[in-house]
Known about the structure:
The structure holds two protein chains of two kinds.
Chain A (H helix, E strand, L loop, with lengths): L1 H6 L1 H19 L5 E3 L12 E9 L3 E10 H9 L4 H4 L2 H25 L5 E2 L3 E3 L10 E7 L6 E11 L6
Helix pairs in contact in A: 2-5, 3-5
Chain B lengths: L10 E5 L3 H13 L4 E5 L2 H10 L4 E5 L8 H9 L8 E6 L4 H9 L4 E4 L4 H24 L1
Parallel strand pairs in B: 1-2, 1-3, 3-4, 4-5
Amino acid sequence: MKDMMAAYRSQISGVVVTTVVETFNQMLRQHVTAIASKHPPEPGPDAAVYACVRLDQKNTSADFFFSFDRSLLLMTAEAFYSKELSGKDFVQEDIACAVANIVGGRVKTFLGRQGYDFDMGIPFVVTKGKGGVADDIIRVHFSFNQNGDNGLVVNYLVSEKKAATS
Amino acid sequence: MSLGINSADLVVLIIDDHMIIRQVLEQNLRGMGFTKIDTASNYQEARDKMREKKYDLLLVDWILPGTKSGYVLLQECRQEREFDDTAFVMVTTETDERHMIEALKAGATSYIMKPVTPNAFTEKINKVIDWLGKKRQKQAKA
């Protein structure tokens, strides 16, 4: 299964890019663009909100970790809510999870069309961003302003499930 | 105004666990002239509101937290005669055709994909308003 996910690496990245850009630019009234650079810095823990969505199959899970720059979430919130409400953690976390949910759903659909049926969990906030190593991971980056600052990094990690021991 | 129906007269319930999605949908509806809009974040809250008020249109997230999804809500309501004239629009992140067919077979009036884009949203909702108009015309003739 990991091989399959590796084979679809570029297509999955494409789905993530298209969905994130569409979500922010058409639905959330922000201007977000994908960044080509391979390893731009992620926002630090204090400046970020982390969300995760898991796609699950019998023996495999694919975790999508999202590191959102708080500035991007604040700008997004301010387009819909009062200034006071926009600064609240729960408001920003809700936006983070909503985006994670949409991206996860689109990737699930893409994998379904390749014949792989995944279940998608409810997105959740995690306290720390997850990095990854070597071939297991795809990193996709987005900027949100004219300075090209990182607004969002999506890491995707595939894990084989360990067999249950009795 | 579509087939004699004014969007300002229609009573809408938006059901989605994400506040931002409820807000996006509500703002899109208000942009189309809707004024009577309630929201719920899960199945139970939606059911409670549906007991208190008769809704013309429900926008329902396919997946909701808890034991009952938006899809289950649709299936249940389509078994209940009091919802015969209620339009159900399923809102989903999945763009798979089978998913859409499943929704329509279960009795959805239409479906909207996330991310919600204003043009696609307006087009779908206008068709749903037409559907409601035809239902009411039929009722008036009967």
